[in-house]
Each structure stands twice: as structure tokens, then as C-alpha cells.
Structure to design on (505 residues):
């Protein structure tokens, strides 16, 4: 737990939530009106933080953060030096060691690091000598201290400001729930009380992680899959938890990025993250039988809008551009018609993107994501789906290989008939499930077999997906107010679309 005295070390337990509000200026007032905070006196203070690392980013590579913080302004300003170590990188809930010491001014103090793990990180002092500022965060912090009757104590902090790095800036609008006393469930209780009326989004990236990304120019990049490195000695429940947390983090991380990025890849990777999460739920279904996930109905609206936006993005940036030359053929009126269609598609995509962002601002959506986060953190799975122990390396390997073989056989059976759109859709879904499962379980599978099955699944998915993309593009163009001749051309391309060809074993 956190000590109120500088110089003491403690384990920081913190829950981070982004605030996807379109206008953050009224957030403090909105939060202050929530029942859980209404009787708590808010405290405001400006915070200025400078983060340090070596040019090679030695600290970042070891999941270490070192900063100087200025609290307050003018004659009342105080300087604190903070060292943070560890913490999960794929969850909004982090548990990490923190050592905070008051220092005289805006210079790092080697002496203040002596009673911390720093000497083990930097035994000869060479790392400290190479430290330099790498980015800065500036924000106004409003805090409320929630004291519950069960003696749980939770600090709620609203941070509004920005990150500055390498001449670039990124906004900060987030809530941090820090556990001062009581069980971790108290954090989620307070957070859910707020999420009932204020839109939130689980945030696995810390300010430090976003600062590094901003400095490197990668903050706007889509968050791609980073499958968990499953060890053979893990139990099946432990493997399930790791896979589910990583896939859910990919989904939430890309949703967070959509607030500041129009990059179509963000939309794509958000949907990939969600499909991987649902695939993992199915993969580990028997393991999760005694701990079902929370209801997901509140996500349906956003997921539908996200799918429509992805269809628009694919049509206007991938499928239709490849048909332009065949239609235009140097004809000026046709070129204008094609340009008008492009403008109409761009306008439709902008409207749909706004619709997605609006859906993210609905409290029920964020409350569901928060419930999933808590479910993942509190996942107390049985040791074995049949009641016995399931802790041997052989058991986990055998389970993984058996599941993959079963999925491969189902896909191969589906390939025997792909003559109807429904059959092709089902085959594509099975190919995705096999692909995602192999990605998750790869360290436990036979290398050559897994690679062969993965390549087959990807080829099937891509083949059927290409046909589907043409069909979707035709449907989208048919709804636009564009040149009838152009619509007829696209309709002809749709009719010419073929079906997938089965592959061998």
C-alpha cells in the first residue's frame, strides 16, 4: 500500500481509465456530481513531470521509469523523485514497486536512489551518468479521497493536460484509481460507480509508455497483436488468462487511439483484437465454464458501427482503387464520376467514424469494458475442467495440440462445400478461429505443422475475404448517390466474383 511519507517504498496498485468525452472541460464537475464523489472534497494541483532515460532507453527496456515531479507552483513548489518498477503492460490494472523521495530541486539525486532497487540496475553508476530528459508531462490533477464504511480507502485522480516529446504533443484525459487500503475489488467498486454515468475506457498504456511512443513518433500507430509467450509449465487456466488479457488490451488500445487518429488500420486492429478475444473465449470455453464473462450486450452497438466503418475503409482504400483504371479508361466524364464516388465514400466514412466515437461516449459501453477488466483480474479458474489437477507441461501441450487438430479438421470439412455465401462465411470464420488459436498457442504446438496449418487458414481467410470485400463494396456503392453507369460497373464486378478453392492437407 502507499505510504504518505516520502522516502518509503510501497507497492502501487492502480487502475487507469481513459475518458473519451468529446469535451473534457466539464469532466471535473461531472465527476464531482457522481454519488460516490459528491461528499468528497476535491483537491486541485498542477503537476509537471520530467522523465529520464539513457539514449539507448535502458530503463524502458527493463520496465523502469524514473521521473522528477514538480508539485505546485512558485514558492509553494515541491520536487519529488520517483522510481517505478514492473507492472503489467496488458491491463488497466497495474501493480508495481514505487519509491518516492523529496529532493531539493529540479536535478536527479543519485543519493535518493540508494535505498531502492536502483543499485541492482546500475551497479557501477554508468546508467545514472547517461540519463537525460526524454519527455515531459504537464497536467492539472483533481483528486478525491473516497473513504468507505468497510475502511477501504481509494484515491480518485482526474488528470487533464498533455505530454510533450520531440516537438510533439498528445492530450491527457484520464482517471487513476489508487488503492490506499482494502482489497483490489474496492478499486473496481468505485470505478463502476463512476462509470454508471461517465464514459470510460480501460487504459493499459501509462503516461510514460505514451511519452516514449510520442518521442519516437509511434504513438499514432495501430496496436497489433502481441501474442502471450506461453510457457509449457503454465496451467491451462493461467494460459487462458494471459491470452485473454493480451487480446482485450489490443481491442481497448486501438479504441483509445481512434480518439486522435483517422488511420483505418486502427479500426482494423480494434476489430482484430475483439475477434481474437472472442476466439479465445471460445478456445478456452470449457476452462471458463465456472467463471463466465460478464454480459457483452452493451458492446453490440459500437461493434456494429465499427464493422460498418471498416467496410467503408476497405471499399475506399483497398477494393475500389484497384478497379479505377478499368472503369475510367482515359474518359474524362468517367474520371469525374469516379472522383465524385471517392468524395462520397470519404464523407460516409467521416460520418461513420463520428458515429463510432459517439458510441464510445455512452457510459454503458465503458462500464461493460470495465467489468471485463475486473473479470480478467479476478479470474479464479479451476485447476482442471474435469476437477483434477492440470499443472503438467505435457497436459498443456496435449490440450493445445488436441484443440488445434480438432479445429483444423472442422475447417477441412467445411471446405468440402463453399458454393453458397453462407457456407463461405462459415468457412472464413473457421479459418479465422484456427489462425487466432495457432497464434495464441504456437509455443506449445509442433512447429512445422502449426506453420502449415496457419498458412492454410490465412490463405483461405484472405481468398474468401477478398470476395466478401468486393460484395461489400458493391453494396456500399449501390447506396451512394453516384453515377448510375459507375454503379452498374461495380455491380458487374460483383457478379464476376468467384469462390474459394479448397486446399489440400
Amino acid at each position: 500500500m502507499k505510504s504518505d511519507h516520502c522516502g518509503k517504498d510501497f507497492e502501487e496498485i492502480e487502475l487507469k481509465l481513459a475518458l473519451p468525452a468529446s469535451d473534457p472541460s466539464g469532466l471535473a464537475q461531472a465527476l464531482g456530481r457522481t454519488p460516490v464523489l459528491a461528499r468528497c472534497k476535491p483537491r486541485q494541483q498542477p503537476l509537471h513531470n520530467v522523465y529520464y532515460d539513457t539514449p539507448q532507453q535502458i530503463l524502458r527496456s527493463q520496465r523502469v521509469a524514473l521521473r522528477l515531479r514538480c508539485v505546485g507552483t512558485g514558492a509553494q513548489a515541491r520536487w519529488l523523485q520517483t522510481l517505478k518498477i514492473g507492472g503489467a503492460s496488458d491491463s488497466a490494472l497495474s501493480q508495481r514497486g514505487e519509491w518516492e523521495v523529496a529532493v531539493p530541486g529540479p536535478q536527479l539525486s543519485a543519493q535518493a536512489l540508494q535505498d531502492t532497487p536502483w543499485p541492482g540496475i546500475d551497479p557501477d553508476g554508468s546508467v545514472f551518468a547517461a540519463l537525460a530528459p526524454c519527455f515531459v508531462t504537464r497536467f492539472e490533477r483533481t483528486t478525491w479521497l473516497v473513504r468507505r464504511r468497510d475502511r477501504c480507502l481509494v484515491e480518485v485522480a482526474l488528470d487533464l493536460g498533455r505530454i510533450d516529446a520531440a516537438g510533439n504533443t498528445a492530450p491527457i484525459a484520464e482517471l487513476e484509481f489508487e488503492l490506499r487500503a482494502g482489497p483490489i475489488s474496492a478499486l473496481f467498486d468505485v470505478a463502476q460507480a463512476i462509470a454508471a454515468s461517465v464514459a470510460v475506457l480501460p487504459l493499459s498504456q501509462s503516461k510514460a509508455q505514451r511519452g516514449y511512443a510520442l518521442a519516437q513518433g509511434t504513438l499514432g500507430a495501430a496496436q497489433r497483436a502481441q501474442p502471450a509467450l506461453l510457457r509449457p509449465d503454465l496451467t491451462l487456466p493461467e494460459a487462458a488468462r494471459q491470452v485473454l488479457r493480451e487480446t482485450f488490451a489490443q481491442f481497448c488500445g486501438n479504441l483509445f487511439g481512434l480518439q486522435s487518429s483517422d488511420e483505418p488500420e486502427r479500426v482494423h486492429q480494434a476489430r482484430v483484437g475483439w475477434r481474437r478475444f472472442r476466439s479465445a473465449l471460445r478456445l478456452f470455453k470449457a476452462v471458463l465454464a465456472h467463471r463466465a464473462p460478464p454480459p457483452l450486450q452493451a458492446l453490440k452497438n459500437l461493434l456494429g458501427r465499427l464493422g460498418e466503418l471498416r467496410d467503408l475503409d476497405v471499399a475506399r482504400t483497398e477494393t475500389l482503387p484497384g478497379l479505377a483504371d478499368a472503369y475510367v479508361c482515359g474518359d474524362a466524364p468517367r474520371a469525374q464520376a469516379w472522383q465524385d464516388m471517392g468524395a462520397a465514400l470519404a464523407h460516409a466514412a467521416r460520418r461513420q467514424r463520428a458515429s463510432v466515437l459517439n458510441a464510445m461516449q455512452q457510459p454503458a459501453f465503458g462500464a461493460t469494458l470495465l467489468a471485463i477488466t475486473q473479470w480478467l483480474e479476478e479470474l479464479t479458474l479451476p485447476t482442471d475442467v474435469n476437477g483434477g489437477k492440470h499443472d503438467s507441461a505435457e497436459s498443456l501441450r496435449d490440450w493445445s495440440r488436441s484443440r488445434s487438430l480438432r479445429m483444423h479438421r472442422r475447417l477441412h470439412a467445411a471446405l468440402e462445400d463453399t458454393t453458397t455465401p453462407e457456407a463461405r462465411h462459415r468457412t472464413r470464420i473457421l479459418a479465422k478461429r484456427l489462425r487466432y488459436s495457432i497464434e495464441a498457442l504456437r509455443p506449445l504446438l509442433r512447429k512445422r505443422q502449426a506453420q502449415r496449418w496457419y498458412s492454410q487458414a490465412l490463405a483461405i481467410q484472405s481468398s474468401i475475404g477478398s470476395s466478401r470485400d468486393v460484395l461489400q463494396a458493391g453494396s456500399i456503392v449501390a447506396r451512394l448517390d453516384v453515377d448510375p453507369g459507375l454503379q452498374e460497373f461495380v455491380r458487374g464486378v460483383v457478379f464476376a466474383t468467384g469462390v474459394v478453392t479448397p486446399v489440400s492437407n
